[in-house]
Design brief:
Blueprint lengths: L4 E5 L6 H12 L3 E3 H9 L2 H8 L1 H17 L5 E3 L8 H10 E6 L3 H8 L10 H18 L2 E3 L11 H4 L6 E6 H15 L3 E7 L8 H10 L7 E6 L1 H13 L5 E6 L2 H7 L4 E6 L2 E8 L17 H18 L8 H18 L14 H10 L7 H15 L5 H7 L8 H11 L6 E8 L2 E9 H9 L5
Parallel strand pairs: 1-3, 1-4, 2-3, 4-5, 6-7, 6-8, 8-9
Antiparallel strand pairs: 10-11, 12-13
The protein binds nicotinamide-adenine-dinucleotide and zinc ion.
Zinc ion binds next to helix 16.
């Protein structure tokens, strides 16, 4: 998709014109200020209002907004305070613009317009009533709320952090796009050439979703793909970058805890096949990974729990209670730990396998549940219990932190799935366990012990 206009809505006196000029400068686009254009057209707005009435004025205003939004090429369009009362305008905003609501308190607005000749700003009580009346309309029209110009918040530095000179395509999951997409767009500023959306969740990790994306992207070989979202987005967009024009640069900007501590680190990208997860992919290291734990503030609690399972796994591997750290340290340490392991063994031939701690059990439980009803995080929490027990370690930390409840799946099915994953050699399986010297790969464990550990994770 090309770039939509950026539209600014909000009450009179909010400061839309000033913000509009600054945003236009930041993204290198022209600005259209509807009120200023109307003054050129009809002369003084208060006088016109007085002579023809509000309904006529709204009609003229609606045509001016329509014309501005239908224009090709990206611009910043500043709407008058009452323009959103038109349903047609609200609909057009939805189609043609990324709409920002400049939300400023009523006192500030009043203090800026009380001495003006604006017809709707003559009496404080009326002003206040109108302010309350309009709020739901702004909320309905807007994709995001801004309070001031520097509200690009968490992602403010993204523009400088994306290396190289070429154009940037922003790819995000449609849910995350609604929350952080505008910030990312503003932060990328003049570098941004295209925006694209993937479906949220595993649906992004399909060849159909990538096919759709590849057909839309216009970048040349100097371009960079920026992937904003959870692990599904970074996995899918990373593979899209690996294959588009035989490989272009990409920068993951992970927004979930799973993605910040795990999925976006290490250069593995993949999509799923009906036969199984992650069966088609590539090693394609990003040119940079931009991690901002502030993005996690909007993450739902159940998604956070998913990530905590990988955090606890990383802490156990590192031999430090990383899970006790505050968010920014926790993310930094976990991401650094995984990055170091992956840089020493980029192609997963030896040391990197330690990252599978607990995962043999987790995958068996997920497969036995046919990937429904048992999340990866819960399965990993249980898998860690089994790995700790087989390592002769205390399981208190995992039990307290993750409270893994046994799952109700068919025991035989889980055991078959585990054996499909790990071949038994001479009655033994090889697992990642924690030894006295730290994590060890390929530790031989008698099959009956593995079976018993697996059974203990299953309810009933
Ligand atoms: N490549 C690797 O090395 C690697 C490692 C681990 C996991 N993975 C993959 O990662 C995927 C799981 O990642 P995930 O758990 O992030 O799933 P996800 O991408 O589906 O994100 C989970 C949900 O959280 C939402 N979300 C994300 N960030 C948000 C935010 N800041 N605020 C509000 N909502 C937000 C998403 O829209 C989605 O609905 C799996 O497909 C897995 O295979 C890959
Ligand atoms: Zn995992």
């Amino acid at each position: 998709m090309g770039l939509k206009h950026v539209a600014l809505v909000g009450f009179m006196g909010a400061g839309k014109s000033t913000l509009g000029r600054r945003l236009a400068e930041r993204i290198g686009a022209p600005v259209t200020d509807i009120d200023a254009d109307l003054e050129n057209l009809v002369g003084s707005i208060p006088a016109y209002f007085e002579k023809h009435g509000e309904a006529v004025f709204r009609g003229v205003e609606e045509s001016a907004v329509t014309e501005a939004l239908l224009r090709n090429g990206r611009s910043v369009v500043v709407l008058g305070g009452g323009a959103v009362t038109s349903p047609a305008t609200r609909e057009l905003l939805g189609d043609r613009a990324t709409t920002l609501w400049l939300d400023v308190d009523v006192e500030t607005c009043w203090s800026r317009v009380r001495d003006s000749d604006r017809p709707l700003a003559q009496d404080y009580d009326d002003f206040r009533r109108l302010y309350e009346e309009r709020r739901p309309l702004y909320a309905d029209a807007a994709d995001a709320v801004v309070r001031d110009e520097d509200d690009a918040g968490a992602l403010r530095r993204l523009g400088e952090l994306v290396p190289a000179e070429g154009a940037v395509a922003l790819v995000s999951d449609s849910h995350v796009a609604g929350i952080h997409g505008v910030d990312a767009q503003l932060a990328l500023g003049t570098r941004l050439a295209e925006t694209h959306e993937l479906p949220p969740g595993e649906e992004a990790k399909t060849l159909a979703a990538l096919d759709h994306l590849w057909q839309e992207v216009r970048l040349d070989r100097t371009g960079t793909l920026v992937a904003l979202g959870g692990g599904c987005t970074t996995d899918a967009a990373g593979l899209a970058a690996a294959m588009y024009l035989r490989g272009i640069a990409w920068v993951p900007v992970p927004t979930s805890l799973v993605a910040q501590v795990d999925a976006a680190i290490g250069g593995k990208t993949a999509v799923d096949l009906p036969q199984g997860k992650n069966l088609v992919g590539a090693f394609h290291w990003p040119v940079r990974t931009v991690i901002d734990p502030a993005l996690l503030e909007t993450l739902p609690a159940e998604q956070r729990r998913e990530g905590m399972a990988e955090v606890v796994k990383t802490g156990l591997l590192a031999g430090e209670p990383l899970w006790e750290l505050p968010d920014d340290e926790l993310v930094r340490r976990c991401a650094a730990f995984k990055a170091a392991v992956c840089l020493r063994d980029p192609h997963d031939l030896a040391e990197r396998k330690i990252l599978n701690l607990g995962h043999t059990f987790a995958h068996a439980l997920e497969a036995a549940a046919a990937y429904e009803g048992v999340t990866h995080g819960r399965a990993v929490a249980l898998g860690l219990l089994a790995a700790l027990r087989l390592s002769g370690r205390d399981t208190a930390s995992v039990e307290e932190l993750l409270r893994p409840a046994p799952v109700r799946v068919d025991r035989e099915r889980a055991w078959h799935a585990l054996q499909r994953d790990k071949k038994t050699v001479g009655g033994e399986l090889r697992l990642v366990l924690l030894g006295d010297e730290g994590p060890q790969i390929d530790v031989p464990v008698p099959a009956e012990d593995v079976r018993r550990a697996l059974d203990a994770l299953i309810a009933g």
